[in-house]
Amino acid sequence: MKSYRQELWFSINSRRGLLNITPQINVCLEESGISEGLCLVNAMHITASVFINDDEPGLHADYEKWLETLAPHEPITRYAHNLTGEDNGDAHLKRCIMGREVVVAITEGILDFGPWEQIFYGEFDGNRKKRVLVKIIGS
Amino acid sequence: MKSYRQELWFSINSRRGLLNITPQINVCLEESGISEGLCLVNAMHITASVFINDDEPGLHADYEKWLETLAPHEPITRYAHNLTGEDNGDAHLKRCIMGREVVVAITEGILDFGPWEQIFYGEFDGNRKKRVLVKIIGS
Amino acid sequence: MKSYRQELWFSINSRRGLLNITPQINVCLEESGISEGLCLVNAMHITASVFINDDEPGLHADYEKWLETLAPHEPITRYAHNLTGEDNGDAHLKRCIMGREVVVAITEGILDFGPWEQIFYGEFDGNRKKRVLVKIIGS
């Protein structure tokens, strides 16, 4: 069994934002030399997500509006977590909705995706550098 | 390390519906000949889910009602995504709640499940054929 | 390829509660002797979650309040599932938000985590013993 590990760093210059990281994952997969296996991609931070969906700007605007409805950023006093001095209580909840990680099948050396699947980094507490972990195992 | 791949096609004859696909996954597992490992089952479409829960009709009715509360289908103008000509903006959000994929342990040649765990395909934009990917790795 | 399996039993003495189970997963990892691979940790029950977030009591209070807003326990008549005689309809929905499972990279014999990542068992229908499955594969 072969294994591969890489950290990817991202910096979103706003509180929230979505970034298509499929090209970077493809580079990792090529570096790994693995043709059959599983690829785990996870946020290493607990106020960010990795998820799979469509690269369509309208949808991304819908996510932003919807997540703000389900877990509003303000007033920051609504979250007990913010009593620690943080203002990111909402980001911990938003990340639960969108998920920490994806596991993707690797088949014949490529990400085994349906027609519209793309991997996104979802930032909910940005304006700083944060990491995504890529771990691939297989043969 | 052995690996196995199969696509399963499903057609739900309504906009939304849930289907217990555990029998089909068991067939895949048997075909794979893998006795120890991990089994990934994921929707290949971004308006559908694969998730694990109970095969109880009342619960499935609760899911339907609850998801419509969290991300209503109508009015379709509420979603920027629908400006593309689609009417499935809600389906992209519902799938985030229910998840894209499950990873199941394989132990002694069977799905290593608790007493009530069953694998479901969740369709949120149906009336057409769509695919689920099964990838099993192990020994 | 090596594989390892363990069941962990937990009993939360209230309807709902969160428990940091990272120490128990570390014991499993050490027992496994696996240094490179993937570790699946999943609830074996469908009214409980395994998820990764921060071990901060204010955040845990926020989760409790937020999940009760999204899927209230009462009135129990609001859920069709409760017509079966159960009173845990809400627990099945809360577990969808928080997730069934996590997959964690194993690198050089340790859980490959960012600075604040901790694994939690989330109980939404407690007052009885329930199980978590740990499956590790790798080399």
Task: Report what the structure shows.
The structure is a homotrimer of 139-residue chains. In chain A, the strands form 2 sheets. The first copy, chain A, has a 5-stranded antiparallel beta sheet with strand order 1-8-3-5-6, covered by helices on one side. A 3-stranded antiparallel beta sheet of chain A has the order 2-7-4. Chain A is built from 3 helices and 8 strands, in the order ββαββααββββ. The first copy, chain A, has helices at 22-32, 57-70, 89-98; strands at residues 2-11, 17-20, 37-43, 48-53, 101-107, 110-111, 118-123, 129-138. The relative contact order of chain A is 0.39. The first copy, chain A, is elongated. In chain A, a hairpin with a 2-residue loop joins strand 5 (101-107) and strand 6. The longest helix of chain A has 14 residues, at 57-70. Chain A is an alpha+beta fold and 139 residues long. Helix content of chain A is 25%, strand content 37%. The A-C interface holds A 1, 3, 5, 38, 40, 42-46, 70-71, 79-84, 89, 92-93, 95-97, 99-101, 103, 131, 133, 135, 137 and C 1, 36-38, 51-54, 56-59, 61-63, 65-66, 70, 97-99, 102-105, 107, 112-117, 137-139.
- Strand order, largest beta sheet of chain A: 1-8-3-5-6
* Helix count from the secondary structure assignment of chain A: 3
- Unreliable stretches of chain A (pLDDT < 50, length at least 5) are none
Oligomeric grouping of the chains: homotrimer
Largest sheet of chain A: 5 strands, antiparallel
N-to-C series of helices and strands of chain A: EEHEEHHEEEE
Mean pLDDT reading of chain A: 98
